[in-house]
Amino acid sequence: MSNTTNHFFIGKARLLEHDNATKHTIIRFSLSGTGVRAIRPGAYVVNKKGKRIGVVTSCAFVENFQIGMAYIDKKEAQVGNSIGIFLVTPGKAIQHKNITELQNGDTFPMYEPATIISRFPMRDADQKK
Are 70 and 57 in contact (CB under 8 A)? Predict the structure, then answer.
């Protein structure tokens, strides 16, 4: 949520109350590598332990990299945290064998590594001055 501590507006108390009660938040992420297939809304987000923590809401190419937004668990939403993005096509089931049935040569879905970055880079730069 944006910094509302220095501003007065009607409904501020209710907004802060709602923000504190919610368990999820929007984050911004950057994929670590280039040459990755386009990330689509609906792609799953996992933490570094492989636990599903959210879903991608949007993503775009910025030069050679992809930067996106995701709705994730607040406990995982720290700038600099490593996350993973599963490349899935929304509405299409992922078909793979159970991990205990895998044999040499079989494929298994893997995630693309990403990092949580600041949602407001210009504001952060201004605060450092």
Answer: yes
The whole-number mean pLDDT for each consecutive block of 10 residues of the chain, a chain of 129 residues, reads 64 82 92 86 92 94 91 94 84 71 81 92 58
Q: What is the DSSP letter of 53?
A: E
State the amino acid at position 30 in one-letter form: S
Provide the whole-model pTM. Answer: 0.74
Q: How does strand 52-62 pair with strand 111-117?
A: unpaired
Domains defined for the chain, CATH in brackets? 23-89+107-128 (2.40.30.110)
pLDDT of the residue at 73: 95
Residue 46 CA, distance from chain mean position: 8
Q: How far apart are CA 98 and CA 111, in angstroms?
A: 17
Residue 113: predicted pLDDT: 94
Determine the Cα–Cα distance for residues 85 and 122; give it in Å rounded to an integer: 25
Are β-strands 52-62 and 65-73 bridged in parallel, bridged antiparallel, or unpaired? antiparallel
What's the CA gap between 24 and 45, in Å, rounded? 13
